[in-house]
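fwd from M.: "can u put these together and see what the complex looks like"

so here's what she sent:
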Amino acid sequence: MENTELQTQLLPVDSRTPDPAIIAQAGQILKDGGLVAFPTETVYGLGGDALNPDSSRKIYAAKGRPSDNPLIVHIAEMEALKPICAQIPETMRRLAEAFWPGPLTMIVPKSDLVPKETTGGLDTVAIRMPDHETALALIRAAGGYIAAPSANASGRPSPTLASHVMEDLQGRIEMILDGGEVGIGVESTIVDLTGEVPTILRPGYVTEEMLRRVLGEVQTDPTLMQKVEGGRPKAPGMRYRHYAPKGTLSLVEGDAAVVTERINALIAEAASEGKKTGVLCTEETLAEYHADVVRSLGSRADMRSIALHLYRALREFDTEGVEMIYAESFSRDGFGQAVMNRLLKAAGYTIIQA
Ligand code: AMP
Ligand code: MG
C-alpha cells in the first residue's frame, strides 16, 4: 500500500443495470492492481485482482486484516472454475447448480494459478459466484477473478451500505461503487468440500438444511456457536474478533417478557454507573425499553429483516458512542443460525440467561 492517501471515488450505480462505462473504469482499476469496493447480495466486498499477489497484499493492508486470513475468490461464470481448482468435486457441481449465483462459498483444492497471497498461504481456495448484476459485471470487466473479503476495516461489522465502506476505507482504496443497500446483510455460507463430509465453516443464508437437501450428508463445524479455547478453527477467519461494536455487547436469552425486564434492569444498572446504554431489539418490544439508544432490527417473525439490519445497528451504536449494549436473542433454527453466530461473535460469546 502506498503511504499517500488515495482519492477514493464514490460512484452511484443502478445495482441491476450498472452503467457499462463505470464498470469498465472500475474493471480497469482492478486490472491495474487497484482496489474497488462493490455491492453484492450479501455485504459490500473489497475487490482486487485475485490472481495478482500484489492486489491481495493491498487488500490485507487496506483492511488491516491479518494476512493468514484467506480471501474469497469471486467468479461470474462456471467456466471460470476449472483454471483455479486442482480438482472440482462432484459435490461442488451439484451445489453450484443449486445455489449459484448466490450466497454460498465453497472451499476446494486450488490450482497454481491462484497465488498463496490470496488464500492466506493455504492450498485450498474459497470460491463464490455472487447473485448481483453489478458484482458480476465487475468480475467480468476485471478479467474474471476478484478476491474480495467484506469491505470493512478488520474487526468492524461488515458493510451493508456504501457509507459504511466510506467510514472504514476512505483514502485507502481507489473506488467504491454505491449500489444502495445489500439484499441479505450477512456474509455467505462457507462450506468446506475438501474433507470426507461437507462441513459448514460459516453459517449464512444457505442453511445446513438446504445443503442437506442437495448433498445428503452435511455437518456444521461444532466450534461455530461457542468460544474456541486455544483450538484451531478450520476457517482461519473464525480465530479473529469479528463484527464487534466498540461498546460491550451482551446477549440476553430467555422467555420474551423476562428478557425485556432483565434488559431494562441491566440498563438501569449501567446508567447508574454513568454509562451510555443501548438495546438491540425487535419491533415487538421496541416501545418497552428505556436506554439511550434503542434499535429495532425489524419483526421477530421476519428473520431476513433481522439479518439485514444487524450490522447497520451495530455501527450506529459506535456512532452514538454507546458503551453498554444489550441484545435480544433469536432462534438458532434455519437462517437464525447465521444471525446468532454473528451476534455471539460480536458479544464475545457473552450470554446472560434472563
Ligand atoms: P470475508 O471475505 O471477510 O467474509 O472472509 C472470508 C472468510 O472465508 C474468512 O472467514 C476465511 O477464513 C474464510 N476462508 C477463505 N478461504 C478459505 C479457505 N481456503 N479455507 C478455509 N476458510 C477460508
Ligand atoms: Mg469479513
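replying to her w this: The chain has two domains: 9-225, 248-353.
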